[in-house]
Amino acid sequence: MSAETVTVPEPPDTSRSSAPTPAVASAPSPEAGRRRWFVLATVALAQLMVVLDATIVNIAMPSAQRALGFTDNDRQWIVTAYSLAFGSLLLLGGRLSDLFGRRRMFLIGLVGFAVASALGGAARTFELLVAARALQGAFGAVLAPSALSVLTTTFFDPKERARAFGVFGAIAGMGGAIGLLLGGYLTENVSWRWNLYVNVLIAVIAVVAGLVLLPRTGGTAKHRLDIIGVALGSAGLFALVFGFSQAEPKGWDAPLTWAPLAASVLLLGAFAWRQRTAANPALPLEVILDRDRGASFLSILVAGSGMFGVFLFLTYYLQATLHFTPMRTGLAFLPMVVAIIVTSQVQSNVLLPRFGAKALVPLGMMLGAVAMAWFTTLGATSSYWQVLPGLVVMGAGMASIMPASFQLATLGVDQRLAGAASAMVSTSQQVGGAIGTALLNTLAATAASHYATAHGPVSPGVLGAATLHSFTTAYTWSAGIFLLGAVLSAMLFRSRAAREIRVAERVALGAEPVLAH
Taking the complete model, does pTM exceed 0.70, yes or no? Predict the structure, then answer.
């Protein structure tokens, strides 16, 4: 059951309903229309910076390890520190955007992210680098939901909204691949430190554009922040991400793995109870109880799991088995980026308005499963041309999932809750990535160990075969995750007919219609 109170004006879909509709506001001026697209460019730039930072550091890791002298056991914290801070503070970041204004928090997030990146780039010790990565994650948790909520409250026209979310969803889908490409180039040609410094350049451009373009809208600071709810939600997400991050190095049976996971269940349960009773909840349940929005959050989580998995294992395969350089590895993902860009625009502007998310998101999940099944055929003597079809299909799958899910995840939300809804989008993607990476990494490591044990004395040939077997295991499980996502999204998303009936009912009751594809 959904409790939606809509204050964002959405024009009625008169082509599909003969019910009486309220008056529609006059069309914006050409200057205002152009300004909206510049706002989209600014927000997309900020989103790109946040998303690519999840992978850009991975390629720089060996160089950073040689420069700072940290151990193999310690290197996971370069990635985990960012994920822990980002994932656990997203709900707080989204609520701050609602309370104190999207423009203000967007600019604060940009400046903080740039300062943290500069500290990380200049780090001379492992401890400072980890601290800088955690600070990046904290400010990313402020920046990501404020960026999406700016977009949500900027585009009202259904066609323009579809186009804008197509661009934003494409950025979310291809940001990791761009991070690999840019990281490979900077590591080989400049320095590993520029994988962090580059964020300063991006942030400067986005800050200047944000100061000029974003309207000075106030928040709802008169409402009190639910400190208890924020603490429970943030602690629960921290425990969840931390527990999964320990699964690979410690094992699933280690107390450092299962104890945080058990604690996360209790904390998130307490958080859900708190949201039902708090006067000013950190995450109003109306944001997630809508059927379409719930399906969108789940689809983004599943896509995040598969997406980060393919980046992790294909990167290792290309460098360890095919002996690609970091730069060549980044270039190898370029066809996937192109597939995402092209497919997302076709989906958003042509297919999504005609067929709806209930058809396209499960299709994207199926394409993801097909791509993963294709990757299981890769062997020690395979060439890049055998990798390429899987990358293209994977790109098409991501572009079918992300734009539609991003659009429905925030459509119809009261403006005062746009930050909370946007935070759930980023939370779903980040937690999905963390869970997927930890789960697949553990399954792959276990498969490699069992293979090596079963095939006699350890030798380079056996180790190489064990590594390939571990990759195949990860791809197989990832294909299963996508298939599960296909079933769940097909069941949960409303059909176009059901959504149109719902729109007509709202109009008949005198409410503004919520128009969604």
Answer: yes
